[in-house]
Specification:
This protein is an alpha+beta fold and 258 residues long. Helix content is 29%, strand content 33%. The protein is built from 6 helices and 12 strands. A 7-stranded mixed beta sheet has the order 1-2-3-7-6-5-4, with helices on both faces. The chain is globular and about 55 Å long. The termini are far apart. The protein binds biotin. Biotin (BTN) binds next to α2, β3, β6 and β7.
Length: 258
C-alpha cells in the first residue's frame, strides 16, 4: 500500500486530502495526535501496514496482522459542541458498516458504541480520541481498525473476531475498501456538521439491531443490566433498568437476550 495508490482511488474530497502512509508505526492514533499538535489539517489520514502498539478501547490492545487489514486514523476538526464527538463515533461505525456491506454484499451490523459485526463477530473497532491543544478541544482522531483479509486470530479473540474475507470467502482490495469507508464517512460527517443528526440516527437504527434487547453494559464505573430503549443525538445509549432510564456514553456491552 502506498500514498499514490490511495490518492488515485479516493472519492472523498476532504477525508484523505493529506495522506501519511507508513510501513510500521506504534499506533496510527498516536501519530495522528502528534500531527494534530503540529497543526495537521482536517482530513489528514495516517495509515500503516503494521502497528507495533495498536490500541483498542478501554485500555486494550488491537491485534492486526501486518499487511492484511486496514489500520488508520483520521483527523477531524469540527467546531465541537459538547456531545458532537459521540455522534461522530456512531457515524464512523455506520460508515464502515455501509462500506463493508457494499463491498461484501453481506449485512454488516453496528454494535454500540462503535463496533462493526459480520455474522455476529467483530470485524471492526473504532477508537475515537479528543485532542486538546492549548486547553482547547482542537480535533478528534478517529482510529479505525478493519479486518479485511486476515484469516486467523489469536486464541483469546478467535471466537469473537472475523474479517471481510472470512465472512465473504474471498479477499478484498484494501485501498478500494478504504476509499469506500472514507466516501461513506464524508457524507455522514457532512450531516454531523449541518446538525442533521436525525438522518444519522435513522441509518444507525437500521444497522444496529440492539433496541429492545436485554444487555449488560460495563461502563468501567458501574454495570447496568437492562433493555436498550434508543440512541440519542449525542451518541449516548438509553438503557431502561428497574424502571429507570440511564444514558451511557461509553462501555462494554454484552447482549444477554434478543
Ligand atoms: C476497539 O474496538 O477496541 C477499538 C480498536 C481501534 C483500533 C484502531 S487501529 C487504528 C487506530 N490506531 C490504534 O492504535 N487504534 C486504532
Amino acid at each position: 500500500m502506498n500514498a499514490d495508490d490511495i490518492r488515485r482511488s479516493l472519492r472523498s474530497q476532504v477525508l484523505g486530502r493529506q495522506i501519511v502512509c507508513l510501513d510500521s508505526v506504534d499506533s496510527t492514533n498516536e501519530r495522528a495526535k502528534l500531527l494534530c499538535q503540529q497543526g495537521a489539517e482536517e482530513g489528514t489520514i495516517v495509515i500503516a501496514d503494521e502497528q507495533t502498539g495498536g490500541r483498542g478501547r478501554l485500555g486494550r490492545r488491537w491485534h492486526s496482522e501486518r499487511g492484511k487489514n486496514l489500520t488508520f486514523s483520521l483527523v477531524i476538526t469540527p467546531d465541537l459542541q459538547p456531545g458532537e464527538a459521540g455522534i461522530l463515533s456512531l457515524a464512523a461505525a455506520l460508515a464502515v458498516a455501509e462500506a463493508v456491506a457494499e463491498a461484501t454484499g453481506l449485512r454488516a451490523e453496528c454494535k454500540w458504541p462503535n463496533d462493526v459485526l459480520l455474522g455476529g463477530k467483530k470485524c471492526c473497532g473504532i477508537l475515537s480520541e479528543a485532542v486538546v491543544v492549548a486547553d482547547r478541544a482542537a480535533a478528534v482522531v478517529l482510529g479505525i481498525g478493519l479486518n479485511v483479509n486476515q484469516t486467523s486470530f489469536p486464541p483469546a479473540i478467535g471466537q469473537s473476531a472475523t474479517s471481510m474475507m472470512l465472512a465473504a470467502g474471498k479477499p478484498f482490495d484494501r485501498v478500494a475498501v478504504l476509499a469506500a469507508v472514507l466516501a461513506h464517512l464524508e457524507t455522514l460527517y457532512s450531516h454531523v456538521r449541518s446538525g442533521e443528526t436525525k438522518t444519522i440516527l435513522q441509518r444507525w437504527a437500521s444497522a444496529c439491531p440492539m433496541a429492545g434487547k436485554t444487555i449488560a453494559v460495563d461502563t468501567g464505573k458501574r454495570r447496568i443490566t437492562g433493555t436498550v430503549v434508543s440512541f440519542d443525538r449525542d451518541g449516548g445509549m438509553i438503557v431502561r433498568s428497574e424502571g429507570r432510564d440511564n444514558k451511557v456514553f461509553a462501555g462494554d456491552v454484552t447482549i444477554i437476550q434478543s
